[in-house]
Design a protein that fits this description.
The complex is a heterodimer of chains A (77) and B (255). Chain A is mainly α and 77 residues long. Chain A has one domain. Chain A is flat. The chains are: A mainly alpha (77), B mainly alpha (255). Chains A and B meet through helix 1, helix 2 and helix 3 of A and helix 3, helix 5, helix 7 and helix 8 of B.
């Protein structure tokens, strides 16, 4: 039973975190959007969503580029 | 039922849940074929009841206690962690860097493992029940998460998402019973890619809404956000195909 609970817990974790760098990047992007929205200006608050979108797209592309480089290195090793 | 709510909640919940049900069905089928049907069916039923209790208590508590704004922010953040993970993996699979999810291969591997364990002489097959219980509980947890994600817009959206997920379960289970074989014809990677992009778009929308962001066109802007994610994904897939034209087929954990 404990191994079942452990695997449920592990799967729940893996459900959200597959790649640590991507997860940290997402949380950081959310933090940036939160700070932007709480700077006081309504115009900045309305920009927060778009900034978040751009940050996440850039993060995903950068993360995949790193994955590609890692795969190429493993192929040539 | 409002067509808009169906499009926004029920349809994506149906597609996303179908992927999870296909994965659970593969395992339950493997157990049933090798060890008989009584234990895996009881294991699946127990898992479904466990899930119902978890959702009924935890889900209701969260929705009734947590303020709407905080809930949207929390759900948005979870959606992004979940959605971008699916999107990333689907792009890596499209680019040939990670092997495609092969239900037939998983089924054959599961069959071999279960046959190797052998049947005991006890009246009830505990191994069969436990394997089915774990598979249904784990994939079911993802379904529950998907329903909450697409249903975060309110009661109508939640009901639509539940209907979508239940319909997906019925369709996949009926297909599994009819075919007695894993549903290899389901384009899982395309579905995961689409759902990953949709979940991510919803995640950005909900999180920004929780911060007081006013999107132009309100919920319609989700389509615009989705278009940006799809554009970025296709650009990333092309970039990877140029980096590794022959693919790599390495384990997902190694990239």
């Amino acid at each position: 039973m404990s191994s079942t609970l452990r695997s449920v817990g592990l799967t729940l974790w893996e459900l959200l975190v597959d790649d640590g760098q991507l997860a940290v990047g997402i949380v950081t992007s959310l933090g940036v959007a939160w700070i932007l929205a709480h700077l006081g200006s309504e115009a900045l608050a309305d920009l927060a969503g778009w900034v978040l979108l751009v940050l996440l797209c850039a993060l995903m592309i950068a993360n995949l580029a790193r994955a590609g480089r890692n795969a190429r290195r493993k192929m040539s090793a | 039922m409002d067509l808009g709510v169906v499009v926004v909640a029920a349809l994506p919940a149906f597609i996303a849940s179908a992927v999870e049900f296909v994965e659970a069905t593969t395992i339950v089928l493997a157990v049933g074929v090798t060890r008989g049907w009584r234990a895996p069916l009881l294991g699946s039923l127990a898992a479904a009841l466990t899930l119902a209790v978890i959702i009924g208590t935890l889900g209701v508590a969260i929705v009734t206690v947590v303020p709407e704004n905080v809930l949207k922010g929390f759900v948005g953040a979870l959606l992004l962690l979940f959605g971008l993970r699916w999107l990333r993996k689907a792009i890596l699979r499209f680019a040939g860097i990670v092997a495609l999810h092969d239900e037939e291969l998983i089924y054959q591997k599961e069959l071999a493992e279960l046959r190797a364990q052998g049947l005991t002489s006890t009246a009830f097959d505990r191994i069969g029940a436990l394997v089915a219980f774990k598979a249904v509980l784990l994939e079911g947890t993802e379904v529950a998460f998907i329903v909450i994600a697409f249903g975060a817009g309110g009661p109508a959206a939640l009901n639509s998402a539940i209907v979508g997920a239940v319909a997906a379960g019925i369709v996949v289970i009926l297909l599994g019973i009819a075919l007695r074989h894993p549903l290899t014809m389901v384009p899982e990677n395309w579905m995961k890619f689409g759902v990953g992009a949709i979940l991510s778009a919803f995640g950005v929308f909900w999180f920004a809404e929780s911060l007081g962001n006013h999107w132009p066109g309100d919920a319609l802007s989700i389509l615009g956000i989705l278009a940006v994610f799809l554009g970025a994904s296709f650009a990333a897939a092309r970039m990877l195909q140029q980096m590794l034209p022959e693919g790599a087929q390495v384990a997902a954990k190694n990239v």
